[in-house]
Amino acid sequence: MTRSRDMSWNYRIMKRVIGGVDTYEIHEVYYNPDGSIKAWTESSITPTGENIEELKKDFAQQLLAFESLILHYDALDLQTKITD
Question: What's residue 74's pLDDT?
Fold first, then answer.
């Protein structure tokens, strides 16, 4: 994954409706310098690491997503398409 100096990111919980069922997933969300959402991963992500310590660190970072507001995938998708 490439990270730009002018765009920060974090893990966020995103809600979307799949087959009429509310589904919650963790995604990487990227921000513009002004803090507005620029992009997010299309698919949800899972913790990864090259060793157990890296896996624990990534998992701990993903747990922080539960401290932020839930993002609604479809609303963000529409908003991004309108502003692009």
Answer: 85
